[in-house]
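Example record for the data management plan.
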Amino acid sequence: MKKMTLLLLMLQLIIMFTIGCATTQKKNDYSAFKAADPHSILVLPVVNRSVDVDAPDYFLSTLTIPLAERGYYVFPVDMVKHLLEDDGMSDADLVHNADTMKLCSLFGSDSNLYVSIERWDAKYMFLSTQVTVDFDYKLKDCKTGDLIWSARKGMVYSPQQQNRSGNPLADLVVMALSAAITKASPNYMPLAHQVNGTVFAYPQGQGLPAGPYLKEYRKDYEK
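Corresponding structural encoding:
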């Protein structure tokens, strides 16, 4: 009996340890970011690795506000995109592979933000449609070209049928119609806004530190 009790306790400890390891999130090292001390951010055209050709333009429009809310001056993304196109850099991959400091000199920015769309799709499942977005973020210093902050974040949304009629057949029809509508015209924007909000404004240790236009400036780095 004692052996069985001991085994159960050991099993519980193993499970608790495993769960703790699984939920522990990697923290960013802010030493390079603190040394760079960026005041402005140049958001470059987004690289699209999804099959939706419209995804970059839609997503690009979601980046300015959350970055500004973190206390940074953000160059107008449409202006940046058009100026780069006029300079012969209409391809986002070409822009991302260009020299960071050369891009900085064109606009006078302190840092450049490189974002790629890894997923932006809607997948039909049994009587539901699963909408998925996944983005990779990299911030580089304009003085050195070095990486000073990075993050990767995705999110999944699957609309649920909340109000059941009590008629199983009718509920199935409604669920099927809802899934078909979501698949035909998925709404990615709420997910994109949520991901940006989480990535940039997350508590210290993972998110983007407060910029010079916030009172928390240089106070919320990882201790």
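Summary line stored alongside the record: The CA atoms of residues 164 and 171 lie 6 Å apart.
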